[in-house]
Amino acid sequence: MSFTVTLLPAAIADLKAIYDYLSDQAGPAIAKRYIADIHVRCASLSEFPRRGTPRGDLGEGLRTIPFRRRVIIAYSVDGEDVFVERILHAKRDLGAAFD
Fold first, then answer.
1. Distance separating alpha carbons of residues 50 and 63, to the nearest angstrom
2. Is residue 21 within 8 Å of residue 30, measured between CB atoms?
3. For residues 21 and 9, what is the distance between their CA atoms, to the nearest angstrom?
């Protein structure tokens, strides 16, 4: 069974912020590759979406998976749909991001 993965507007905005930061710091080519790799990680949720760590403390049904130990992908599963809610730096206060 394959699940449908959708990035919500907040996650898309997070990706744009990550791209902008990396583009300034390391150049557009590196930023583009990094964002593409995040997309691959998100797409992998279509095969085994419940592998993430449950984070009920952040929101009902919310789960997280890491990406290269620097980024946290927060998502929820509803039926056969996976909704990527946020894509945040691992050092960010996750609780504040979901208030």
1. 8
2. no
3. 18
Structure tokens given for 69: 């130990």
Neighbours of 31 (CB within 10 A): 18
| Apex 76 CA angle, 43 and 36, nearest 5 | 25
Q: pLDDT tens, 35-59? A: 999 999 999 999 999 999 999 898 8
Distance (Å, whole) CA 99 – CA 33: 31
User: Which 3 state secondary structure label does DSSP give 36?
Assistant: helix
Name the nearest CA neighbour of 88 among 51, 56, 62: 62
Which CATH number applies to 4-97?
3.30.2310.20
Sequence ranges of the domains in the chain: 4-97
Instruction: Say whether pTM exceeds 0.85.
Output: yes
Residues whose CB falls within 8 Å of the CB of residue 17, separated by 6 or more in sequence, listed in order? none
Residue among 3, 2, 1, 21 nearest 87 (CA): 21
- How many CA atoms does the CB half-sphere of 77 hold within 13 Å? 18
